[in-house]
């Protein structure tokens, strides 16, 4: 059984996933409309296509972010720009991708986690500079191996060795 909120959630998540095209998506929430912001399609009105008023859409994005469906940043009105909110949709989380029937990108996730581990090691005051350098080098080698394995797998698939 489908529920209206679940249907709305999927509709918005599918739109965000399709519209992002692997890049950050910026949305301006104005008084009467929500527009795609920037060079990728400025002027495209989003909210009415998805069945929302601007404030309702803004609140729905907050819920999606707070419930862990999207990774997004909100800039609220201030001194440097007008009286509207600007959302930066970074990506759908694993939870968001699963909600729309997509599988998370395991390679992207691995690379992201290796980068995060490197950042945490750089900031760890308990480790000496030598320990940090050695551990970071291992993680950087892990990234190289991960990239190589991915390229080899793609080549094998294209060559027909893997169905």
Task: Tell me what you see in this structure.
A hairpin with a 4-residue loop joins β1 (25-29) and β2. It contains six helices and four strands. Helices cover 55% and strands 14% of the residues. It folds into two domains: 4-99, Arc Repressor Mutant, subunit A; 106-159, no CATH class. It has a four-stranded antiparallel beta sheet with strand order 2-1-4-3. The longest helix is centred in the last third of the chain and has 31 residues, at 129-159. The mean pLDDT is 82. It has 163 residues and is of the alpha+beta class.
Mean pLDDT: 82
CATH architecture of the largest domain: Orthogonal Bundle
**Helix percentage range:** 40-55%
User: Could you say which overall geometry the principal axes of the C-alpha atoms support?
Assistant: globular
- Find the count of extended strands (DSSP E, 2+ residues): 4
Brief sketch in words of this structure:
The chain is an alpha+beta fold and 163 residues long.
Please give the structural blueprint:
Layout: H1 4-20, E1 25-29, E2 34-37, H2 47-50, H3 54-66, E3 70-75, E4 85-92, H4 94-99, H5 106-123, H6 129-159
Antiparallel strand pairs: 1-2, 1-4, 3-4
Helix pairs in contact: 5-6
Question: Key features?
Answer:
about 160 residues; alpha+beta; Arc Repressor Mutant, subunit A; 2 domains; 4-stranded antiparallel beta sheet; 4 strands; globular
């Amino acid at each position: 059984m489908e529920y209206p909120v679940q249907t709305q959630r999927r509709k918005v998540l599918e739109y965000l996933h399709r519209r992002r095209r692997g890049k950050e998506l910026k949305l301006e929430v104005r008084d009467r409309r929500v527009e795609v912001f920037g060079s990728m399609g400025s002027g495209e009105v989003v909210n009415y296509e998805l069945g929302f008023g601007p404030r309702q859409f803004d609140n729905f994005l907050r819920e999606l972010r707070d419930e862990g469906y999207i990774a997004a940043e909100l800039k609220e009105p201030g001194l440097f720009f007008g009286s509207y909110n600007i959302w930066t949709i970074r990506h759908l989380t694993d939870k968001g991708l699963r909600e729309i029937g997509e599988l998370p990108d395991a390679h992207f996730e691995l690379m992201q986690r290796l980068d995060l581990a490197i950042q945490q090691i750089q900031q760890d005051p308990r480790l000496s500079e030598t320990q940090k350098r050695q551990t970071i080098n291992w993680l950087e080698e892990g990234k190289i191996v991960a990239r190589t394995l991915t390229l080899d797998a793609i080549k094998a698939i294209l060559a027909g060795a893997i169905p």
